[in-house]
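Please complete every field before forwarding. Incomplete forms are returned to the sender.

SECTION A: IDENTIFIERS
Entry label: holo-333
Bound molecule: pyridoxal-5'-phosphate
Molecule representation: SMILES string

SECTION B: INPUTS
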Amino acid sequence: MNNSPWVTASRVALARIPTPVETCKYQWGSHRLLIKRDDLTDCPMSGNKIRKLEYLVGDALAHDCDTLITCGGVQSNHARATAIVARRMGLDCVLVLSGDAPAEFDGNLLLSKLSGADVRIYPDAGSDQRAERMHRIADELRDQDRRPYIITSGGSDEVGVLGYVKGAGEIADDLSQSAQRVSTILAAVGSGGTYAGLLLGAKLFGLEAAIVGASVDSTPDFWHPRLRDYIDRSIERWRLDVRVSDDDIVLIPAAGRGYALSTDAEIEFIAKFAGTTGIYLDPVYTGKTLYAFDQAVNDGRVKLDGDVLFVHTGGIFGLFPQRERFNQYINQT
Ligand SMILES: Cc1ncc(COP(=O)(O)O)c(C=O)c1O
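SECTION C: PREDICTED COMPLEX
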């Protein structure tokens, strides 16, 4: 059995870690909000994805691959981080993005284009279609004697999960050096890798806090069995010496109007949070997560018995394509 999966997994050091933990002005009664600043893991490559990419790119290099292929929506943080990591590592990159091709490049898409990645945008399509396209592109590249490496949506597979298993170890170190009693660790659930890694790492490193995931896309009922399966596959793959029960997987709804669609209340929350703390949440993941959690605490659905550590998983570039909504808010206040 294994307590240190990264001993056997290949990893390249990419992220500027350990990231700081900051105590925030925001508070629920006597319970404080601490923020693990994973929005500071880099500048252009920033956010949670770079932690997963350390292992995914490590695996790609161990297999002597020369091209990364991944997928996402047109404003995918994961696709942007992958494109830039590829450039930094001297690899080629193909992005399979779904959505409407915009008249102008902006936000994450602009950064991905500037990295020189081969960006292919398709009208909105489901995840099966995106996977099929990635495999077709990989076959074409192999025919040209290239060595592609496919990274699943959001980097959430048994290799990518290690980024946040290790991240949870970092949090255990952070908390051991402070007198703060953290009873909740909160993170967004988009493709599941961050949450699964945090929960596995919490078990491995003896963190006592509940790991709460905010389902920003789909419902908790959709995610629970998928996370269960993902966690079990990861335990098996790395022979982890941990037990995770169904009750350990704690999820709150946070999708609001739906994936990447913001309510006025979410926009206002993000703007006010920036205005009081100087910390910027993004409209698709972190803003929805903290807004939904705040609502759940305030209306009693979530009970706190200690401080909350929110893992700020980044996404700042997603603010810019939403400039109209934020301008509206600014002009109304
Ligand atoms: C900024 C940001 N936060 C959180 C998430 C969710 O992480 P995960 O996909 O690992 O569930 C993502 C990606 O989906 C993201 O881009």
